[in-house]
Amino acid sequence: MTDPHPTSVQAATPVQAATPVQAVILAGGQGSRLRPYTDDRPKPMVEIPGTGVPIIGHQLSWLAAEGVTDAVISCGHLAGVLQEWLEKAELPLRVTTVVEDEPLGRGGGLKYAAAHLPHPDRGWYATNGDIWTRFPLREMAAFHTERDATATLALARPRLPWGAVETDAFGHITDFIESPRVSYEINAGVYVFSPGFAALLPDRGDHERTTFPRLARQRRLAGYPLPQGAYWRAIDTAKDLTEAAKELAAQSR
């Protein structure tokens, strides 16, 4: 029987259809270089001074603002602390946590978490649990789609923690540069993956030594440079916490 009141539905464009609405956050690391902050909490639960928000809270808000509706968090070190915070927090999206029964390595852990995503036929984002950043994920997803990539890595140019010097051809020092940006782009720890990517991951081991190099040889791995002015920092040490607090305070002025 024909519906006398048909509903008009606008077809999604290819880019809209390919934009992920699900993500994996890898939050199982020991965070040994952040001690004593990580003595009683996992690294993603460490707060940037002055924000009152743990790293994981910032990430979930960012993902939700970029259209993500479901996130799977892969837990490990002190998983109960993170799970307890998630139960009490007002979350902007649906969150599932998974804990490995035994260490699977970064690639195996990513594959295990991806198996719990709600839409196995759709692409997905992933991020390391110690990344403090904001940039347009939808633009990265469009970049991924345009290049028909299987996986796309965000690329950053971090600053050196030391000062640098410039010299002339005769070895005279001509200038001092405080904390210059490195000349090479690095893996920023944020990804876009096509639906079939999880099947390419190892059950155990490191995908950056297996899956990524294989995709690169096949020209199926893309690199998305972070936009000019985008904020990015990996929180690895106590100094990173201090620097992040200074940078965020400067941005709010």
TrEMBL record:
Annotated Nucleotidyl transferase domain residues: 23-249
Listed InterPro entries: Mannose-1P_guanyltransferase, NTP_transferase_dom, Nucleotide-diphossugar_trans
PANTHER family registered for this protein in UniProt: SUGAR-1-PHOSPHATE GUANYL TRANSFERASE
Lineage: Bacteria, Bacillati, Actinomycetota, Actinomycetes, Kitasatosporales
Pfam families found in the cross-reference section: NTP_transferase (PF00483)
Name of the protein: Nucleotidyltransferase family protein
